[in-house]
């Protein structure tokens, strides 16, 4: 067994690809905040592939986090010289490579002092992030900035010792302005439509609360490119660590992923960028179409599957695709109720994308848990599912299947499966969701009364009526009975 570290790279098994570049010569150019599995399998991989060509040697990644438990990840990765074993899983076979584009990780401290200092370094030209869809302090109904959150109130009052990543970015940019250093590009890699525009809104809105002059400087000197990211990356557990050990590597934080990646980026970088297009990324003036296709079909597709599967005790996405009723529901909702509101992108129609997602979800080699994709429904349903509901209501298109998806979520939030087993808390607002879901057993409209999620959809009878009907059927006869009625057009 070879313990992963720089000194061991030459001794890795012959079929394991490893860095051919000199990692000691790399210089940092990117700080990435929220360094989870997805980043290491996606953005870090693209950069690693450039480095393998002898390029982008001054764009190495420094990881960062703002939560106390991020310090555990920092220590784990530091012990293996920030290397990651990536295992691509495909029914046809697997491939393994060690990625070395990350060279450091900022110590996680209260007030985020080390992070601020690192981002203020002149060599840092991009600050990127994956902080989850719900991490941008956006009102889910108005899409405006939510200035009422306790962490935002704190950062506005104490800009030198912020709690949030956005407060730390602002503090670092304040130092750069004072030192005569230019701005940097702020790059969101989260599943948000217009993620760069949303990041701009959050940073500028927070900055205006404490320093409007600095906010204007940031607006003039920084850029916020939109992007669409796509790769299915399961969480790492004992099974994934054991898989890497079978290969002959001791890696405390390996990452498995599917054999598909896509990265579409708006070419708006104020301080330069790596040539990611040389390794498969797409630079495009209008990312919107790609964003809509991916968020409305793939990300919403996860929600179509996840809640029904959780209620039935199905553990993985691939297993849910083997369930005839859930699979059929996914295809019917995606093709008939979502795809008509999605425009084609170069080389891909919405129907073709549904077929692509179908194959990807069904990949049995990817052990992507239902619990992972069902997490944070209070952010994911407003972001992924409900925009299509609103489009359909405006155009007079059907919403019965989308109403069923929301009813399945309400049923899941009751906190028990149909076999009586307990569903553990799986949302930052779980207590409120569970209370509403239990009350909705008798009065389904109670669920739609959560205006912070549904806005005025409770007033739309074309949506609320089928929702109430589906939830009543689910509570009385079970989730499979409701899906059967939907598939039969009843």
From TrEMBL:
<dbReference type="Pfam" id="PF01232">
    <property type="entry name" value="Mannitol_dh"/>
</dbReference>
<dbReference type="InterPro" id="IPR013118">
    <property type="entry name" value="Mannitol_DH_C"/>
</dbReference>
<keyword id="KW-0560">Oxidoreductase</keyword>
<feature type="domain" description="Mannitol dehydrogenase N-terminal">
    <location>
        <begin position="29"/>
        <end position="278"/>
    </location>
</feature>
<dbReference type="InterPro" id="IPR036291">
    <property type="entry name" value="NAD(P)-bd_dom_sf"/>
</dbReference>
<dbReference type="InterPro" id="IPR013328">
    <property type="entry name" value="6PGD_dom2"/>
</dbReference>
<dbReference type="InterPro" id="IPR013131">
    <property type="entry name" value="Mannitol_DH_N"/>
</dbReference>
<dbReference type="InterPro" id="IPR050988">
    <property type="entry name" value="Mannitol_DH/Oxidoreductase"/>
</dbReference>
<dbReference type="InterPro" id="IPR008927">
    <property type="entry name" value="6-PGluconate_DH-like_C_sf"/>
</dbReference>
<dbReference type="Pfam" id="PF08125">
    <property type="entry name" value="Mannitol_dh_C"/>
</dbReference>
<dbReference type="GO" id="GO:0050086">
    <property type="term" value="F:mannitol 2-dehydrogenase activity"/>
</dbReference>
<feature type="domain" description="Mannitol dehydrogenase C-terminal">
    <location>
        <begin position="286"/>
        <end position="464"/>
    </location>
</feature>
<protein>
    <submittedName>
        <fullName>Mannitol 2-dehydrogenase</fullName>
        <ecNumber>1.1.1.67</ecNumber>
    </submittedName>
</protein>
<dbReference type="InterPro" id="IPR000669">
    <property type="entry name" value="Mannitol_DH"/>
</dbReference>
């Amino acid at each position: 067994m070879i313990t992963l570290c720089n000194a061991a790279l030459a001794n890795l098994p012959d079929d394991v690809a490893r860095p051919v570049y000199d990692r000691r010569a790399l210089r940092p150019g990117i700080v990435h905040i929220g360094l989870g599995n997805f980043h290491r399998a996606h953005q870090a991989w693209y950069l690693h592939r450039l480095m393998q060509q002898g390029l982008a040697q001054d764009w190495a990644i420094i990881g960062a986090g703002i939560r106390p438990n991020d310090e555990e990840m920092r220590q784990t990765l530091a012990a293996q010289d920030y290397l990651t074993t990536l295992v691509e899983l495909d029914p046809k076979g697997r491939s393994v490579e060690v990625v070395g584009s990350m060279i450091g990780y900022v110590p996680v401290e209260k007030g985020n002092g080390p992070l601020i200092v690192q981002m203020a370094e002149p060599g840092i030209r991009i600050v990127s992030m994956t902080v989850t869809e719900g991490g941008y302090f956006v009102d889910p109904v108005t899409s405006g900035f939510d200035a009422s959150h306790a962490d935002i109130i704190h950062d506005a009052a104490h800009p030198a010792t912020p709690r949030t990543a956005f407060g730390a970015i602002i503090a670092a940019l304040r130092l750069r302005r004072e030192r005569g250093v230019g701005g940097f590009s702020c790059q969101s890699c989260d599943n948000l439509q217009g993620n760069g525009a949303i990041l701009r809104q959050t940073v500028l809105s927070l900055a205006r609360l404490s320093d409007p002059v600095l906010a204007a400087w940031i607006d003039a000197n920084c850029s916020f490119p939109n992007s669409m990211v796509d790769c299915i990356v399961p969480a790492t557990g004992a099974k994934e660590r054991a898989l890497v050990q079978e290969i002959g590597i001791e890696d405390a934080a390996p990452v498995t992923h599917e054999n598909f990646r896509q990265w579409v980026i708006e070419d708006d970088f104020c301080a330069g960028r790596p040539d990611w297009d040389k390794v498969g990324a797409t630079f495009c003036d209008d990312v919107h179409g790609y964003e809509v296709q991916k968020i409305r079909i793939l990300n919403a597709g996860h929600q179509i599957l996840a809640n029904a599967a959780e209620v039935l005790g199905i553990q993985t996405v691939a297993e849910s695709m083997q369930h005839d009723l859930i699979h059929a529901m996914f295809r019917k909702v995606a093709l008939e109720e979502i795809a008509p509101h999605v425009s084609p992108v170069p080389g891909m129609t919405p129907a073709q994308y549904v077929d692509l997602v179908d194959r990807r979800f069904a990949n049995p080699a990817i052990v992507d848990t239902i619990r992972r994709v069902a997490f944070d429904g209070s952010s994911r349903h407003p972001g992924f599912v409900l925009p299509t509901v609103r489009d359909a209501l405006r155009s007079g298109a059907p919403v019965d299947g989308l109403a069923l998806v929301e009813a399945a979520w309400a049923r899941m939030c009751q906190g028990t499966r149909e076999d009586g087993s307990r569903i553990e808390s799986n949302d930052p607002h779980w207590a409120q969701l569970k209370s509403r879901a239990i009350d909705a057993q008798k009065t389904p409209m109670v669920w739609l009364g959560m205006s912070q999620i549904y806005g005025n959809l409770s007033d739309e009878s074309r949506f609320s009526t089928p929702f109430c009907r589906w939830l009543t059927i689910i509570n009385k006869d079970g989730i499979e009975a409701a899906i059967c009625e939907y598939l039969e057009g009843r």
